[in-house]
Amino acid sequence: xxxxxxxxxxxxxxxxxxxxxxxxxxxxxxxxxxxxxxxxxxxxxxxxxxxxxxxxxxxxxxxxxxxxxxxxxxxxxxxxxxxxxxxxxxxxxxxxxxxxxxxxxxxxxxxxxxxx
Amino acid sequence: xxxxxxxxxxxxxxxxxxxxxxxxxxxxxxxxxxxxxxxxxxxxxxxxxxxxxxxxxxxxxxxxxxxxxxxxxxxxxxxxxxxxxxxxxxxxxxxxxxxxxxxxxxxxxxxxxxxxxxxxxxxxxxxxxxxxxxxxxxxxxxxxxxx
Lengths: 116, 147
Fold this sequence. Notes:
heterodimer, A: 116 residues, alpha+beta, Arc Repressor Mutant, subunit A, 3-stranded antiparallel sheet, 4 helices, 42% helix, B: 147 residues, mainly alpha, elongated
């Protein structure tokens, strides 16, 4: 009898498909060390349009990686974003896989970069 | 889709590092607020120490200007915050809690021992305010060191 089960040991298998998109990765990387970040701050730092960011945030929110809170001061609304525990866990695993891949050619200089 | 080269992985890690540094830099807003609170409190206490008991018109008006100015300034800075880290808000909260705890302890002990009254010199209030400002300045210094 042949055992078809194959152990997936390559670090790429630990990469998260949703975080493979560069904008979504940057958004989550920005949110990872933060308690909360306002929408406009993320937009300015990631350098995307409002509509593009809204679209990516919706996808991350649907996946359960991100929480959206709306707060009002007077009539002015502010949208705050934060990572969920699940989002943080997925990002850490994704980063670990990236570090392994980055170290794949024997160089680990950037892979050891200080995060968070 | 996920077949990244080591170079691409390193670029992604560098991007993550940059994004993380941006959040740490934005925490420096807490430093301004903490230093503003410490400066306002110590300046007010200095006035009370210099003009104890009945005080003077100059001291009264100056105290109001310092307190209102400090309050408005801090409110402005608080409303301008657009990002903060968990570490930043933790240091801010703990230093503000230590500041409040010291003030509550001084007021409580002074009231309980009937030591705090108009017949007492005002300098003890100034000294107490300087001690209360220490956790605020310490937290501001630590936050300012983050890179």
